[in-house]
Amino acid sequence: MNLEGIFVWLKKDKHSISIRIKLAAIKEYIEGSVSYKRVAEKLGIRHCTQLKVWVKKWLSGEAFDVRGEITNPLSGRPRTNFSTVEEERDYLKAQVDYLKKRYPNLIKEKPLESEITMK
Predict the structure, then answer these.
(1) Looking at the predicted structure, is the pLDDT value of residue 77 above 60?
(2) What Gene Ontology molecular-function terms does this entry list (predicted)?
């Protein structure tokens, strides 16, 4: 099975590898009599141990990578006891600032009504 044409576009310095490439590498290893190292070298995978992990997960039916799942940044034990209103305000402001930095593309500032009427 010749997969070299598929991987021409894959740069060696690229850290993420698509699921299509992972499956092709696994298929080539399982169907052929080539070592992990040879398949990894041929397809430009940095380390053959990564291919071993993919094959092991494939054979056991596990997911390859679950890092893409969104986690809740506010998870954990919530702080409910504040000694003053100001302390609670500062805590909530810090959360808002953190979320603005973490997800900048979600910020949609609405123009003030005074700005709308001036135009």
Answers:
(1) yes
(2) DNA binding; transposase activity
Tell which residue, 74, 28, 72, has the closest CA to residue 48: 28
For 39-67, letters b (16+ CB in 10 Å) and e give bbeebbbeebeebeebbeebeeeeeeeee
* The two structure tokens encoding residue 11: 């740069």
The ranges assigned to domains in the chain are 85-118
Distance CA 62, CA 54 (A): 9
Quick one: pLDDT at residue 44? 83
Return the structure tokens found at 24. Answer: 């092709």
- At 14 the three-state DSSP class reads coil
pTM over the 0.70 mark: no
Measured between alpha carbons, how far is 44 from 34 in angstroms, rounded to an integer?
Answer: 15
pLDDT tens digit sequence for 59-74: 888 776 666 555 666 6
**CA–CA dist 79, 89 (Å, integer):** 12
The token pair that represents 30 in the structure block: 């399982």
